[in-house]
Design a protein that fits this description.
Blueprint (H helix, E strand, L loop, with lengths): L2 H20 L11 H12 L9 H14 L6 H10 L11 H16 L3 H13 L10 H11 L6 H14 L5 H17 L7 H6 L1 H16 L1
Length: 221
């Protein structure tokens, strides 16, 4: 998807939320121009240190949210959270999700989103630290499943994903990366379920576990 398409997609999401906050027929306030916010986010998603966490990943997550939208209580808020969930991304730092959530809080309050909406977006962004959505957290389940859907991709696409992740962590020596990555995979495989929506459980769980097990075998074999 091109940058103009993504800009329009962001604008449609923000406009929908601002209209809902006023009345179904109200036009968004002229002061709530979504395009500067979209441009700022797209610039962040295009930073040179990114190899996997790029606009391609953003587009994929948004597409998966479209697929899973029926399971969310507030799909537009989940879409906004997708835009912000990796907006701050430095592979050598551990506070990316928290910094991304704080960016969402500042930007969305300025844009005119309701306090409740802003809090929910920030909560969802923080949730991507662990992807541990609680039972009944329908918005969280959709965002987490959409973010993890890459794990269930076809083998070639999964291999491209793992190669891109390795590039992002190019500053880490091979042995240390293999050890750390293997620990992550083992933690994921130990979970009772990787996905929480019915769609994710039925369509993505089995292929994701196959991919994770295959990668782990390569790393430890």
């Amino acid at each position: 998807m091109t940058a103009p398409d993504l800009r329009s997609r962001f604008a449609a999401t923000l406009h929908a939320l601002l209209r809902d906050a006023e009345s179904p027929s109200a036009d968004p306030s002229p002061s709530a121009d979504p395009y500067p916010y979209a441009d700022n986010l797209l610039a962040r998603w295009a930073e040179p240190q990114r190899r996997y966490h790029t606009t391609d990943h953003l587009t994929a997550v948004l597409d998966h949210i479209d697929t899973l939208a029926e399971y969310a209580d507030d799909p537009e808020l989940v879409r906004l959270a997708a835009w912000f969930h990796d907006a701050v991304y430095r592979p050598d730092r551990s506070e990316n999700e928290e910094r991304s959530a704080r960016l969402a809080e500042r930007a969305l309050a300025e844009a005119g989103l309701s306090d409740d909406g802003t809090r929910e977006v920030a909560r969802l962004v923080r949730l991507t630290t662990t992807h541990a959505a609680e039972p009944g957290d329908r918005n969280g389940a959709v965002l987490c499943d959409a973010d993890l859907a890459i794990l269930a991709s076809a083998p070639d696409a999964y291999a491209a994903y793992t190669a891109a992740v390795r590039e992002e962590y190019g500053f880490v020596p091979d042995e240390a990366f293999r050890t750390g990555r293997a620990a992550v995979l083992e933690q994921l495989l130990a979970l009772p379920s990787l996905f929480r929506t019915p769609y994710g459980t039925q369509r993505w769980e089995a292929p994701a576990r196959r991919n994770l097990a295959s990668e782990l075998a390569l790393l430890t074999g």
